[in-house]
Amino acid sequence: MNVKLVLSLLLFTIGSAAFGQEKPSAKAEKGLIKISVMYPYAEGKTFNMEYYETKHMPMVAGYLGANLVKYTIEKGLASGLPNQPLPYMAIGTFYVKSLSEYQAAVGPNREAIRADFPNYTNVAPVILVSEVVR
Amino acid sequence: MNVKLVLSLLLFTIGSAAFGQEKPSAKAEKGLIKISVMYPYAEGKTFNMEYYETKHMPMVAGYLGANLVKYTIEKGLASGLPNQPLPYMAIGTFYVKSLSEYQAAVGPNREAIRADFPNYTNVAPVILVSEVVR
């Protein structure tokens, strides 16, 4: 192969890779299962984001192995409706490939996970299992 | 420059690009504002996912312009806690750069958005504004 051909192939490869990754998260996430752990806001309820981000979420993520695609953390700021209270102080979300694998991994560690709750919050979470449609 | 140098530079560029994009969504999303529109489940409440995905969400997304980074749709499957009802039938989420720009864009279209609700659901949504921490 001559140099021009090699360069052309390389540039084509770069171009294809860039094009294929145009919307990486949207393509990669469709069909995944989300486990969203939502901490409701209420008077007197507390949440330590620093502990949650540096200790609790990494601990739980560590149980999930290769089934875990990614996890996210968000901090509640406000209700999107006027004159409504903040719905949730924080939400932690695990994106996994298989719900049954998630359940099998978390099951034996449920007590350890629950025992860590008082280290960062005094509210019981709501947990939603959902499927990424888009 | 000789051919080896050109090829080395090209390969370095490819390598750097690939490394930089290892976790594209996580890096790109931190600091973004999420507006999560959550439709609670309750007896007798309905939700038409097909209409929501093909008509309602694209309509709202169309108001948001370049401020919108992406939007996602998820379908509620179950509570993550035993013997608890499904918390939400569906959640639609807009990831935006600026909350004030979002509000300015949605404000004049609020009535049109609300008028579309009965086309796919009979439940009033809970709306959470949050910040992506990770």
Low-confidence stretches of chain A: 15-24
The protein's oligomeric status is homodimer
Biggest sheet of chain A: strands side by side, in what order?
2-3-1-4
- Give the N-terminus to C-terminus distance of chain A in angstroms: 43 Å
Mean pLDDT of chain A: 88
Contiguous helical run count of chain A: 5
What's the CATH architecture of chain A? 2-Layer Sandwich
Number of distinct beta strands of chain A = 4
Predict the CATH topology of chain A: Alpha-Beta Plaits
Structure description:
Chains A, B: InterPro entries: Dimeric_a/b-barrel (IPR011008), EthD_dom (IPR009799). Chains A, B: This is EthD family reductase. Chains A, B: Keywords: Signal. The structure is a homodimer of 134-residue chains. The first copy, chain A, is α+β, with helices and mostly antiparallel strands and 134 residues long. Chain A has one domain: Alpha-Beta Plaits (2-Layer Sandwich), CATH 3.30.70.100. Helices cover 41% and strands 27% of the residues of chain A. Chain A is built from 5 helices and 4 strands; from the N terminus they run H-H-E-H-E-E-H-H-E. Chain A is globular. Chains A and B meet through helix 1, helix 2, strand 1, helix 3 and strand 2 of A and helix 1, helix 2, strand 1, helix 3 and strand 2 of B. Strand 2 of chain A pairs antiparallel with strand 4 of chain B.
Label this structure with key terms:
alpha+beta; EthD_dom (chains A, B); 41% helix; Dimeric_a/b-barrel (chains A, B); 4 strands; globular; Alpha-Beta Plaits; EthD family reductase (chains A, B); signal (chains A, B); four-stranded antiparallel β-sheet; homodimer; 134 residues
